[in-house]
Amino acid sequence: MPTMTRAYIKASILYLILGAVLGALLLINGWLPLGSAVYYVKPAHVQFLIVGWLTQLILGVAWWLFPPMAFRLRGQDYPHGQAQRGSEPLFWVTFALLNAGVLLRALGEPLHARTGSGFFGGLIALSSLCLLAAAITLVVNMWARVRELGRGKT
Amino acid sequence: MPPLVRLYVRTAFVYFVAGFLLLALMALDGWLEFSRWLGAAYLSQLHLLVVGWITQLSIGVAYWMFPRFLKEDNPRPRGSDTLAWVVYICLNAGLVLRLAAEPFYRMTGHSWLAALVALSGVLQAVAAVGFGLLIWARIRPLE
Question: If DSSP codes are grouped into helix, strand and coil, which group holds residue A53?
Fold first, then answer.
């Protein structure tokens, strides 16, 4: 399992635990009121589970298991190691953008709902841009690996 | 595919069908209005798909496919069977309890139903923590 995959999967498991604990707090709050602040964690619960857990787990496993690049067709030597998987720095950028997007949104949504401040509205917009950029960098990096297995095939 | 993995995946399939069956019934209910219960089951139906289907399938496949322990490190190649069962039972007990209690809680507001819904959340959180403990050491380079 490559280093990048381990980083993605470990982060995704942390989000699963955080998301499930926040979900439990939301449900407990319906029985024993824990305070009005609990209502504001709902966006973080959703973001952590859908993007932080499921999406990030899928990306990490895809990086690990998708077919390697087909370099021979471009007249290049077949690379070894991580280079077969595409650009590792770009995949780190995707990781940073995805997690920045999730965390900014989890922080920005409740603060914006509570204060109405334009600054926190800006944070939410920034988080969306981070997630969009993460999606674009991922697709650019992985597109060529969606192919038939075999070194000479496309 | 080990027996417990088959159980995870087949249970996930059942939730997949059940989730879309409920969705279809809810759509019919929006038109024919034959059940108050269906109108109150929206959140539970969503969790059947996100937790029961996608999350459970991911957990089952990860337990199956992630790098196994070396025999000298751990006699159980996939880690503790007991913990894997605890995760399975807590996840599914939590989901079923939520589906059974939440719509009636939304319809009646009874406190004891709220307690059951809260318990369902705790069970699912325990399952998440258990899965983290079960799989963390297997997120490692292949030997």
Answer: helix
Which pLDDT tens digit goes with each residue over B54-89? 999 999 999 999 999 988 888 899 999 999 999 999
Q: Which of A5, A13, A26, A27 would you mutate first to test chain B, the one with the most B CBs within 10 A?
A: A27
Q: What gap in Å lies between CA A55 and CA A50, rounded to an integer?
A: 6
Which residue is it, tokens 């219960």?
B37
B28 touches chain A (CB under 8 A): no
For residue A116, give both structure tokens: 């109405």
Sequence-ordered list of residues with C-beta below 8 angstroms from that of B81, at least 6 positions apart, any chain: B4
Q: Between chain A and chain B, how many beta carbons pairs sit less than 8 Å apart?
A: 76
Please state, in angstroms and as integers, the Cα–Cα distance from residue A36 to each residue in A42, A69, A84, A109, A134, following that order: 12, 51, 50, 15, 33
CA distance B53 to B58: 9
A134 close to A101: Cβ distance less than 8 angstroms: yes
Three-state SS for B131? helix
Scanning chain A, the segments in alpha helix (DSSP H) are 3-29, 42-47, 56-65, 88-115, 118-142
